[in-house]
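Notes on consecutive records. When two proteins share a document, each keeps its own sequence and its own token line. Never mix them. Below: protein one.
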Amino acid sequence: MSPRIVTLPGDGIGPEILAPATEILSGLVPGIEFEEHLFGGASIDAHGTALTDEVIAACKSADAVLLAAVGGPKWDTTDPGKPRPEQGLLGLRKELGLYANLRPVKPIPALYDSSPLRRDVIDGTDLLVVRELTGGIYFGDKTRTETTASDLCAYSTEEIERIVRAAFQAARTKMTAVDKANVLETSRLWRETVVRVHDSEFPDVPLEHLLVDNAAMQLVSNPTSFDVIVTENLFGDILSDEAAMLTGSIGMLPSASLGTDGAPGLFEPVHGSAPDIAGQGAANPLAMFLSAALMLRHGLNLENEAAALESAVDRALANGLRTRDLGGSAGTAEATAAVRAALNV
């Protein structure tokens, strides 16, 4: 049976980078089917909400969901009563039960000189940030008056246990649990739960604990010391974007959001919608391609096709491909052509 993918182009450069990704996927996976829906700001303009019931139903029945980008200044507001594009993303994660966000960070040797860090600092970096995605401060109760505001950060042991297990299962050499246990009660529960799961289920995996501020410093001073990082929603959001710069550009980082067995995963590049370059054909599509590779691997169990696409991106860069964010002049079409040539599709 041919896999069916729901595609969500979203806003800004989203449609420009998603279209070539689906073309490449069609060449890699004969018979693959795509079903496109409005999402984010585009959905707000059309339907008054960032995520409709129709899109939720379509995503739940798909084999995987491929998202490009959401948001932009057009929809920015501080009015809590008005819809925001990001509400669609949070809502979709919740509806699909996508509690584990995986962000692999492995600088490509051809791009070492594009990183703001020295070559000798990033050489050999190969880490994975595992971020809890459906709990914490983003989903806690919120209050607002004219002079005060609050956001509740709450976690249950069940929420912590499932993300920690996913991280331990991905670990190869060690796991680093990041928290703020010297200040936050939620972090103390996180640390206690991590230790309990480690001691009872994964005692052979080396475990270390880092406070989030120290982890942020270590990511840029000693990134090769990390294997798998597991942390809560807010910390994971910040640290994974910081880690993206090890690759030289946030335009190079893919992500996968996974839930329980059988639930469709959500795959998306980490970068934003870049409205300042939308419509110019200048967007870097490589993170979108790498997100499609993660979809092939984790969403469709097509390891060979995933590896082939990742290798094609590596070869295109090794052959000199550089988009504007990487210090070159190649646009979306040129980058796509280079990857397709390396992939021979």
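Protein two starts on the next line and is unrelated to protein one.
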Amino acid sequence: MRYLSCLILACFASFDASAEDARPNVIVILVDDLKPALGCYGDELAKTDGIDRLAEKGVRFDLAYCNQAVCAPSRFNLMLGSLSSSTGIYGLGTDLRSRYPDAVTLPQHFKQHGGYTTVSIGKVFHVGHGNKGDDSSFDHVHKDKVVEYLLPESQEADISKEEVFFELEHLTREEEIAFLKGKKIGRGAAIEIADVQDNAYADGRTADRTIAYLKQLKQSGEPFFICAGFARPHLPFSAPKKYFDMHNLEDFQRPEVRQAPMGSPPYALRNKTGEVKNYFPFNERFDEDKFQREVIRAYYACTSYTSAQVGKILDALEETGLDKNTYVVLWGDHGWHLGTHNRFSKHDNFEQPTRIPLIIAGPGIQAGAGTRQLASTVDLYPTLAALAGLPQPAGPQPIDGMSLTPVLKNPEASIRDHITHCYPRSKRFGWAIRTERYRLVQWGDPTKPDACEYELYDFQRDPIEKVNLADQHPEIVAELHKKFAAYPPPVWKQN
């Protein structure tokens, strides 16, 4: 939050990273659709040694949240330090430079103020569904596939709908028409299990490229800011067979709660099929117990695959000695309903899509610690600037985050008592306040709160959001509602 950022300026010096000849390096590991289904977060079914190793080296945020559970806006939140409600960027097809032509993104801040070499590898900005990302933010950009199949039986036709959405954005309209001419478009498989090496898929190649850059930059001695973006566990759940073999189907059960919360508005949850309808056999087998367990197992397998790639990067940091002067961040762009409320997607304000893993490790950071301090995606921009001894970001885009540096030094420190996130529907703005105990969601025109509907969930008594308590506890709704006053009115146009 902009109004609080001045309160933590005194903490920056404690990391002693401002000397020009000792600029720390930064690696931000972005993982698509990753919820805290990780061993280091206490998930007993997870097999995530690579990510767990990173948690042993730093601070794990147990109450970290995205600002909007949609890929493209969430990545803009990270790169701009701006809430979606501040920018009005809520969809997949927004061009950043049309909205903020002079925006200084997180990597550009490191380039301008610290002389950093900036590198983007894999899925960093969202590319696809009408979004082209922002190559101007980096010195070097290496994109790769998000939707990827290696087996012919994984395609209903010549090319899948999701491949068209994701993979043709680099083409002009004329090139796209020529590429698709004569091809049949159909669905792709939700799950692909291929007996291949890790780098047969894009995430393995992303790890390889990241390691190659580490070795190159070690030799040059240049300070670097690298973003390494991994696609799995985003659909399709395509990963090498050995990661599926790590997980037994019999170990997985459908979640206990498979219906909407009692008393919730009908629009609070996205429709049942959502994005998954573009993958077979979701439409045909959605409600089958065995199929849903297969999907859950596949999600865990893909998470294991990505975790192994993270482990390789950590190995390279240690082998080169760069680990001694490198901050490493692991961040999920948003979570995912994995059967809870009978959904397999994101795109709402509930806990499963909005809670994310966030781990920060590096020099001066307490190792192996967890914190209950609420954290937000927009906090990473000011936090990393502080760790590197750079000036705090000043825009011109809105800067809404707070530096988490006091918490990295002392995980018991407290810097805020809530965060905010949102998810707008066409005629209603879903605006949320999340405290350690409660979530309040206001639905409607944010300038007319008396005409809005509300959801209230008590995570101390109801961690899976079974019952909306707003009507039962108007006094809690009123108290939490006061926290919206800390923010400017959302930039939102009712459709």
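For the record: The mean pLDDT is 93.
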